[in-house]
Amino acid sequence: MPTEKPQQELAKDFIILNDTTAHTYPADRPDVTIDYIYIDRKNGKRYKVVERKVINDTVASDHRPVQVIVAPKK
Known about the structure:
The longest helix is centred in the N-terminal third of the chain and has 6 residues, at 5-10. With 74 residues, the chain is α+β, with helices and mostly antiparallel strands. The mean pLDDT is 91. The chain starts with a helix and ends with a strand. The chain has helices at 5-10, 41-44, and strands at 14-16, 38-40, 47-54, 66-72.
């Protein structure tokens, strides 16, 4: 969770790109978000998030896959 200490430490240098309110675990009945996609803060201003989602897959893993599509800012 973004409020936990390890996430707060990471937030000093990285930006979370995925939707942290979209639950990812467990795959069969997700009720918590524990998967994140990050970008370095130095590069974060150069890109924008075009799409973000959790993929509804309960077979590949015990977590649901997280997908973020980014594009350069113009």
